[in-house]
């Protein structure tokens, strides 16, 4: 577990493992566990870490020791047992009983702080009484001063201890809840997954669990303690001033509902902003997910305009929230002064004379009372916010699970045996190898709605396609929408039941079973039934104990290629090498920078489609299971590699095991032992010859695949030496393809993702200036904001000084109490006006800065080069738009405000004390030196821990996102326990950093409170020896010192918090500084003007072109030169990973050529604007992108075409009938990534986009790879008929798709090896193209001859 933690540290880039070995500190137990009582009270045990951070440079994760056992996630989770999720608020009650009440020490400490909040005013009253005695005993005075010091120190130190132990409780709750959320996610069935998308689950982790964390830090006990404290302080006030105290209480009571109303309205607007924010972040996530396609089509503004519109609505809501925040601040900060005004006025009206003893004792009472009155509404508000979070979590925990869950949600997985407890499937009987379904009835809706289907149709309202689909990586081809006994339309007005009925299926033990059929016939649904991913209504399913599974869309985790293949299994070098060869990965590994230790980016972003699929196949093969279920693993590979995989993997290393293969590659069907054809809703099974006897004519289907081209000289045949199979068998040494983990140069080369920004050292002054200037003039901020904060605090302190003059009757002749009350009222009114003004000006600055930063960030990211998205995971980019922007929107203004408020309060209080008693400057200088040293030590470590804690959240969210997308694969392999352990380790590292960050907060807090208590002591002592002081000035000096006790600590805390928030600004600024693609931000770039009708002929010329995806990598294309004439049809072929797609990428300038030039109609494309280039070309990408919105918007986002033109385009691609069957026709909505549409349908929609654009140059990149051959033939004819006058570049693995092209361009290892007509290339038996043709047709010719 610890070694995995260090691995996470490497992933986080928090440990510079290349320069030094991880220190033992990371593995050492928490120093608090063996600390003395004194060390625990003073937090001396954390001092070693602080000194290391200050003296040895920025802290690293390796410097942070382990968590205490009680806080570890694995232990805190154990407290959750026998929890009933059905009763109301049962989760909240359970945590109170089984977590909160076990921390009785917190309650005890809170009661101590409550007691001393009463004692401190009484000691102050005694002190002020003592000052008025003419003949006083100096030793008694020292005793009272010492009592003031002890009272203030115990009050504040006890609060620090309460905060600390409350933090331990909230971290236990946080760890347990988040771990439970992740475990539940692994159990979700299809119905629950439709309700709980990955974004919703991340919100449960980041928002709802945080609600529990915030509440159970202190509010859970404060909500009980504060009312008691308020009552006791009011009683004490009435003892001091009599009935007048009740008037003050009434005024404070009136302010409470006003403050609560403002807080509640703020919360309402904040929740409303969250809704719009979710929409904005969703759009940004979609933008980043489809950025390549949007760039290829020059459609970036489609999303940026929608995002900016959502942002404008969000800012409008946030501005209303800010207005109520200002109102709340005015109420909270002026209530104390208004209460004193009302209390003293009534006190005088009742005939009493205001004395210093009464005035400043009352003032001290209100200082303590104000904190309780301020925090009680916060505690209540957090409780009210916690209730809906509790309900949401309970609903999630109580949601339906897979039919036969492999483990119980509330059981501790660490106490269970991996083989016995975490079984991959418990959905049926276990066999020795044979796979059977007997009388099976299956339902995608988990049994819900089979009998209510008609009722749902009647009651449903127009909705969205995505709501009725299953979001799983192995669901494709529309199979989730198809019943084997019927074929309902893709209707969005009902939830599809998608039932497999009366299924009888057999896959013989140790044999190869091939499943085939047209797109949408239900092949994937049948596979899902075998692995338990679809609800079994009736019948039995029998499978072997261990199953390996490959989904059609390969599931890859962000790790090395080797880790993706091993998938938790022990490393066996010999077997691993055999698997690499069998899956034809040896050549690919030689091309990767660190071979098999190369990092795979998010979703395999740095791999080709064929490479991803072969890694998934290698994972299944390496697991050595009893049964292999393979869902279309051969569609993304070229014929030569496909034949190798079939011979050496499926029929090679897998030989003797039960194999179930779903494929469109019909050339492999004759080699199957058992064949299942899904046709017209029926399963037809048997051997090849048996199915021929039943009338299924495989030969006629395969004859359509035979290429209508043969060598002109029939005597020319391929010799054995040129056979692709023979060439594949050339020996490659294990050492040449398997990396050495200890080789530092390879480790460096393995890195794909750039190191996430972690700023070190203090935030630069220039950053503050840039941020302020984003909101308005810098000079006005200094005068209008900082000046107003100082002036308003001076007025507030002046009002208290006026009270001292009032009590001592300094003005002679005495003007009377009414005069003093009037002047005090003027002070209070002026303070309230300046308070409102300072917050309003500050809010305008921060609001404008937030708006400008977001829009600039959006523009910079949208038009960043593609390599920016290759090296920065989408989660990291989205983090800038979500977490960092949210920090700036919601927290930076409040943090800025608090820092200015507390700092100005401390400064004014110090000046007041020096003014009243100049001698205090001597101890103050000494204490200031201590303050500076302590503050610098604290800030250095606190800043770095906070930064690391912020970065450590990324692996938690990335793991959730990856596992959600790969749930089917994880469950099929039975790897839930490993992923839970890995997740808990990532979570523990995050909690570890929070824990030590809080510890040093308490370290500085305890010392600052001691320092402030010392100031109280010196202030009171010097008052005794100041002959010029009166009771009023003595009371003011001591009261100012008491008020500093909280402000001094909070000013430092807020300074550190401000630096952390400014870190969000700095992270955004670094993204803003990203160079614009195409060098269009270069002032020296002068683009060529192109005619609106360009290109006219479609002539393309490559001259010595070299393409590198990253500067230090080998070129993906090297010295490529060829010329394509206008209207020519070019087929581009080659091995997977050879560089075929790079041709298209370079044509669209997704990656700039490092050498050479590319011209279209004689125009060097590097000299024109990217929009002018990309908007003139047509593209049908390998990975079709469908964004959320209507079907019409997906086809025509700029509304350039008529309805008739769009319907014609849909008709040409065979989609018109499907779209017409939808309730809203073209206005029907689709979800992100086109959930609910099969991969084939998505490719057809992309083809219709190209038909509408009708470009002179069209690039088709594996545009029909996911289509059956009949549909492929239709589309082929559509392209031929509609692009006759266009230059068409077709990248394809299916040779029949490109065999009738004018020329064939063969790419191998980044080199152009052949460029000629298909006939000429086939005439040469040793040509590379002839070898590829032979690889695809060998099975077919053999079949014909037999």
From TrEMBL:
PANTHER family: ABC TRANSPORTER C FAMILY MEMBER 1-RELATED, ATP-BINDING CASSETTE SUB-FAMILY C. Keywords: ATP-binding, Membrane, Nucleotide-binding, Repeat, Transmembrane, Transmembrane helix, Transport. This is ABC transporter C family protein. It is a multi-pass membrane protein. GO terms for molecular function: ABC-type transporter activity; ATP binding; ATP hydrolysis activity. CDD domains: ABC_6TM_ABCC_D1, ABC_6TM_ABCC_D2, ABCC_MRP_domain1, ABCC_MRP_domain2. The lineage of its organism: Eukaryota, Amoebozoa, Evosea, Eumycetozoa, Dictyostelia. GO terms for biological process: sorocarp development. It comes from Polysphondylium violaceum. Residues 105-385, 783-1060 form the ABC transmembrane type-1 domain. InterPro entries: AAA+_ATPase, ABC1_TM_dom, ABC1_TM_sf, ABC_transporter-like_ATP-bd, ABC_transporter-like_CS, ABC_transporter_C-like, ABCC_6TM_D1, ABCC_6TM_D2. The chain crosses the membrane at residues 105-132, 138-157, 223-256, 322-344, 778-799, 819-841, 899-915, 921-939, 1010-1028, 1034-1052.
